[in-house]
């Protein structure tokens, strides 16, 4: 990420926009959202799942669980968050993808701790619900059917293990009040804090692919994000709008 200010902002912004337009014409994007399969750790539960979505929504859609918000269902369905779950999708590679210099597997939102596998090769891991992840996969794509798996770890067990590993000092609060019937150690995982319970809502420590998944292929570079943040000084002479831009670049050219 680069930051530019003063008069050069206009020039940099114009260049960014031009590059963005060019990369839009030259890039290829393939959506992997839609129908996936979902299973728990021992295979006793196996359902179809929609992406974007989560484990709870997939189980409710098939009728394995009822409305989680009804009466004490939040307590009855605690077992879901204590299990590990795996999303699986298959897709056919397009020759157009591999003609590009870079192919990225992009996850706009993963909830939360996961290992990503493409054709039985580990391509990366996630541990933050709030950020975008991308992994280079050009050399892993093959002719015919490709298999993509996202193995999600129980957020409750992960947070508990992180708490045990942190022995230097106590990080309060350890657990929510008993009346909330919530889960402990939410402050040891980068996840929606209210999912472990809050004073206004039940405990549903969700897991899933809560935003889109797609492949992005491009040459040379790709404009990912462009934003402007106005800054105000004591006079108009000090006013400026730095332009921030985020560019993916292929280095081996």
Tell me what you see in this structure:
The chain is of the alpha+beta class and 253 residues long. It has six helices and 15 strands. The longest helix has 19 residues.
Structure summarized in a few sentences:
20% of the residues lie in helices and 33% in strands. It has helices spanning 8-26, 55-62, 73-76, 79-82, 95-98, 155-165, and strands spanning 2-4, 28-31, 34-40, 46-51, 53-54, 85-92, 102-107, 113-118, 121-127, 133-136, 145-152, 208-209, 213-218, 221-228, 243-249. The model is unreliable at 1-7 (pLDDT under 50).
User: Total number of helical segments?
Assistant: 6
Number of strands: 15
- Net shape: globular
Structural class: alpha+beta
Strand order of the largest sheet: 4-3-6-11-8-9
User: Largest sheet at a glance?
Assistant: 6 strands, antiparallel
Weakly predicted, low-confidence segments:
1-7
State the order of secondary-structure elements, H for helix, E for strand: EHEEEEHHHEHEEEEEHEEEE
Let me know the average pLDDT. Answer: 86
What oligomeric arrangement do these chains adopt?
single chain
Feature tags:
alpha+beta, six-stranded antiparallel sheet, 253 residues, disordered N terminus
Would you spell out the secondary-structure blueprint of this structure?
Layout: E1 2-4, H1 8-26, E2 28-31, E3 34-40, E4 46-51, E5 53-54, H2 55-62, H3 73-76, H4 79-82, E6 85-92, H5 95-98, E7 102-107, E8 113-118, E9 121-127, E10 133-136, E11 145-152, H6 155-165, E12 208-209, E13 213-218, E14 221-228, E15 243-249
Antiparallel strand pairs: 1-15, 2-13, 3-4, 3-6, 5-12, 6-11, 7-10, 7-13, 8-9, 8-11, 14-15
